[in-house]
C-alpha cells in the first residue's frame, strides 16, 4: 500500500466479541488501514516574543510546513482551520484541534491536534495531513449527485442485504469529504444507515459524489459482547422522577437527564417509559441499566469534570429488553440498547463493565472519533475497556458478571486468556476479520495500560506501576486532546507520553512507566 498521507507526530520528548449479524465488508485501502504515522522528536518550540494567542499556532505550523508536504506557497489558513480550542485548568496546557480542507471541502480524517504548555511553548503536533500531490480531485469539488441520492444509495444497498429497513435512529444525512480511496482522492459523501429493524445495523457508507457508486462501507455498531433489585438480585438505590401518582425511571439530577425505557423485546426505540406506583422497581435489567448509567456519569463528572458523554450534559437514553433473547448490547450513536441475553450472556445491563464500556464509545464519538477499524478501531475498543473497567475497578476482567460459558469476555492482565486476544504488537492480527482485529488487537493496548497502572514484567521488560488513577488520567487526557481519527498504536504511545508529560512532568515516574509499558508490548 502506498503511504500517501503525511502523518505527523511531533513532540518534546466492546465490548463486542459477538460479531454483527450484518457485517459490512471492509475497505483495506482506506487511510486507517496501514498508514503508520511517523514520529519526529524535537525540543519545545517557542514563538517569537511578540506572537500571542492563535498566532502561535500558525507560526509553528509555518515552521513545519515542509513536513506536511502541502507546498511552500500554500496559505495554511486556507488548508487548516481551528475547529476546537480547550485549556486544561490543572496544567494550563492549551489544546487545539484542526481540520484540513481542500477548497471548502474537509478531508476525511485530516485532523491534527496541537498543544501549547503554560510556558507558551508548542509541545506536540499529532495528526494526518493529505499532501499536495494527493489534493487534485479528477472531477473537481462539485458533486454530481445530491445528498438525498447518496442516502438512497446506502439504504438501497443495505435493503438488498437484509430486507426492508425500519425507521432510522438518527435523521439520515450525507456530508461531502475529500476521501482517500485506493491511494487517490475522491469527492465522497459519507453517510450512515442506522436502524434496528429488521436487525440492529449501523453501517458507514462512502459514496462517490460523481457517479453514486459505493467506494467502501463498514459496520460501526459498537457492541458489548456482553442488575430496585438488579439482575443478580442485589438491591440498588437510584434517582427517579415523580409525575402525579406515578414514578418514572428518569433521573433529572445529572446533566439533562438519564432516562431508561422498556423496548418490550421489540426493536422500536426507545420503547415505553418505565413507571411504578410505589417507587419499588422489579425489572432487574432496567434497574441495572439506570443505576449503572448514573454511576458512569458520576465517574466522568467526578474524575474528569466531564458533563455527560458529549461534555455538555446531553440526555443519556437507555432501552432494555431490546429484541428477543438478543445476546448483545451496544451504543447506536444516539442511545444505549441492551438485550436480555440467551445462549452466551445474561441480561447485558447487569455488568457495570459493559455499561461503562458502551457509554465510553459515546465519549469517543465526541472526542477523538477513532475510526472503527484496524489499529484505530483496536484503540477505540481498548479505551472503552479501560474506562469501562475503571467504573468499579475491582479486577482486571471485562464482562465477568454477564458471561455464562467462560469466566469473562476479556482480561486486561492476561489478554491471551480469552477471545484469542493479543498482548504484543509483533503478534498482532493483520487480517480482515473483525474489521481488522478491533477486538483481537485491543489486548495489546489493554496490556500496556495494565502494566502502567499495576506494573509487572512482560517480554523481559519490567514496569513500575503508577496506580489506576494516574493511568486513567493519562489515557482520558490523551483521548480528549491528543488522539485523532486514524491514530494507531505508535500514535497512542506518543499521545500517552505527551499526556503524561503534560500532567506529571517530563522526568516523572508516570512518563517512565508509559514508555516502558509500550516497549513491553512491542510498540516503539
Explain briefly what this protein structure is.
With 524 residues, the chain is an alpha+beta fold.
Describe the 3D structure:
By secondary structure, the chain is an alpha+beta fold. It folds into 4 domains: 6-134, TATA-Binding Protein (2-Layer Sandwich), CATH 3.30.310; 147-220, Nuclear Transport Factor 2, Chain: A (Roll), CATH 3.10.450; 241-363, Elastase, domain 1 (Roll); 397-520, Neutral Protease Domain 2 (Neutral Protease, domain 2). Helix content is 28%, strand content 24%. The chain is built from 12 helices and 25 strands. Strands 1, 2, 3, 4, 5, 6 and 7 form a 7-stranded mixed β-sheet that branches. Strands 12, 15, 16, 17, 19, 20 and 21 form a 7-stranded mixed β-sheet that branches. Strands 8-9-10-11 form a 4-stranded antiparallel β-sheet, covered by helices on one side. The two termini are 21 Å apart. The model is unreliable at 1-42 and 223-227 (pLDDT under 50).
What attributes does this structure have?
TATA-Binding Protein, 4 domains, Elastase, domain 1, seven-stranded mixed beta sheet, alpha+beta, 12 helices, Nuclear Transport Factor 2, Chain: A, 524 residues, disordered N terminus, 25 strands, globular, single chain
Shape: globular
CATH class of the largest domain: Alpha Beta
Strand content: 15-25%
Whole-angstrom Rg: 23 Å
Helix and strand composition category = alpha+beta
Question: Main sheet?
Answer: 7 strands, mixed
Amino acid at each position: 500500500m502506498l503511504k500517501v498521507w503525511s502523518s505527523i507526530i511531533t513532540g518534546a520528548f466492546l465490548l463486542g466479541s459477538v460479531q454483527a449479524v450484518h457485517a459490512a465488508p471492509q475497505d483495506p485501502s482506506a487511510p486507517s488501514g496501514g498508514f503508520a504515522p511517523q514520529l519526529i522528536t524535537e525540543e519545545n518550540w517557542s514563538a517569537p516574543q511578540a506572537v500571542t494567542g492563535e498566532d502561535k499556532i500558525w507560526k509553528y505550523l509555518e515552521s513545519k510546513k515542509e513536513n506536511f508536504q502541502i507546498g511552500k506557497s500554500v496559505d495554511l489558513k486556507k488548508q487548516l482551520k481551528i475547529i476546537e480550542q480547550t485549556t486544561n485548568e490543572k496544567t494550563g496546557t492549551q489544546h487545539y484541534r484542526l481540520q484540513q480542507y481542500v477548497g471548502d471541502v474537509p478531508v476525511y480524517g485530516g485532523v491534527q491536534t496541537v498543544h501549547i504548555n503554560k510556558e507558551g511553548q508548542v509541545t506536540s503536533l499529532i495528526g494526518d495531513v493529505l499532501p499536495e500531490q494527493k489534493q487534485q480531485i479528477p472531477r473537481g469539488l462539485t458533486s454530481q449527485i445530491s445528498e438525498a441520492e447518496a442516502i438512497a444509495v446506502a439504504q438501497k444497498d443495505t435493503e438488498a442485504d437484509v430486507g426492508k429497513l425500519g425507521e432510522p435512529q438518527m435523521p439520515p444525512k450525507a456530508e461531502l469529504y475529500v476521501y482517500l480511496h485506493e491511494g487517490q482522492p475522491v469527492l465522497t459523501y459519507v453517510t450512515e444507515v442506522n436502524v434496528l429493524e429488521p436487525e440492529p445495523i449501523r453501517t458507514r457508507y462512502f459514496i462517490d459524489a460523481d457517479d453514486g457508486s459505493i467506494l467502501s462501507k463498514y459496520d460501526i455498531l459498537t457492541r458489548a459482547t456482553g442488575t430496585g433489585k438488579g439482575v443478580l438480585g442485589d438491591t440498588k438505590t437510584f434517582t427517579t422522577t415523580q409525575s402525579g401518582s406515578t414514578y418514572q425511571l428518569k433521573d433529572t439530577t445529572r446533566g439533562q437527564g438519564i432516562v431508561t425505557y422498556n423496548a418490550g423485546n421489540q426493536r422500536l426505540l426507545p420503547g415505553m417509559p418505565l413507571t411504578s406506583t410505589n417507587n419499588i422497581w422489579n425489572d432487574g435489567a432496567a434497574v441495572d441499566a439506570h443505576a449503572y448509567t448514573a454511576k458512569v456519569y458520576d465517574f466522568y463528572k467526578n474524575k474528569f469534570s466531564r458533563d455527560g458523554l458529549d461534555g455538555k450534559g446531553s440526555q443519556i437514553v437507555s432501552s432494555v429488553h431490546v429484541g428477543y433473547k438478543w445476546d448483545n448490547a451496544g451504543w447506536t450513536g444516539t442511545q444505549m440498547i441492551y438485550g436480555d441475553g440467551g445462549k452466551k450472556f445474561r441480561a447485558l445491563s447487569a455488568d457495570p463493565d459493559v455499561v461503562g464500556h458502551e457509554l465510553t464509545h459515546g465519549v469517543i464519538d465526541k472526542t477523538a472519533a477513532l475510526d472503527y477499524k484496524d489499529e484505530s478501531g483496536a484503540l477505540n475498543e481498548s479505551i472503552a475497556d479501560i474506562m469501562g473497567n475503571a467504573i468499579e475497578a475491582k479486577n482486571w476482567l471485562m464482562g465477568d458478571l454477564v458471561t455464562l460459558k467462560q469466566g469473562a469476555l476479556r482480561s486486561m492482565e492476561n489478554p491471551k486468556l480469552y477471545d484469542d486476544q493479543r498482548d504484543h504488537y509483533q503478534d498482532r492480527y493483520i487480517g480482515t476479520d473483525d474489521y481488522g482485529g478491533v477486538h483481537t488487537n485491543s489486548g495489546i493496548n489493554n496490556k500496556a495500560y495494565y502494566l502502567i497502572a499495576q506494573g509487572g514484567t512482560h517480554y523481559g521488560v519490567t514496569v513500575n506501576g503508577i496506580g489506576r488513577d494516574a493511568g486513567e488520567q493519562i489515557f482520558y487526557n490523551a483521548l480528549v486532546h491528543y488522539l485523532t481519527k486514524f491514530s494507531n498504536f505508535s500514535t497512542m504511545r506518543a499521545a500517552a507520553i505527551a499526556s503524561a508529560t503534560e500532567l506529571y512532568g517530563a522526568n516523572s515516574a508516570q512518563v517512565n512507566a508509559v514508555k516502558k509499558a509500550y516497549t513491553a508490548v512491542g510498540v516503539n
